[in-house]
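Hi,

Apologies if this is the wrong queue. I'm a grad student, and the batch job for 3119_t:CDS:1 from Racocetra fulgida produced an output file that my downstream script rejects. I'm not sure whether the problem is my script or the file. Here is the sequence I used:
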Amino acid sequence: MPSTIVHIVKEEGLNNGQNTPFQHALSGFLANILVGIFNSPPDVVKTRMQDQNVGYKNSFECVKLMLKNEGLKSFFKGATLRCVRIAPGGAIQFSTYEYFNKLIGKYMNVDK
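Support response: The file is valid. Your script probably expects a header line. Output copied below for reference.
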């Protein structure tokens, strides 16, 4: 999952070990929103390519015709719903990971 990259960057560079569960959840929520936005254009092109009613020769033709006929906005169709669907999962993933990481570290006597 691409949001894992954001999580690693946050862990290595921005986490001082004092972040609250809410901060971890917010990080995951925002990370998955970014993933939803940046992943939308290739996903829309892939979906258009799989549609049997339209005969695109290749993905480049699909992109060209989408830009020409529908504009840049067409690449982000469904992005809002995608973000609504995946953002809560990022919040849950990041906060539970941090919770169990601290819990296991506490019982294993691992300092972070």
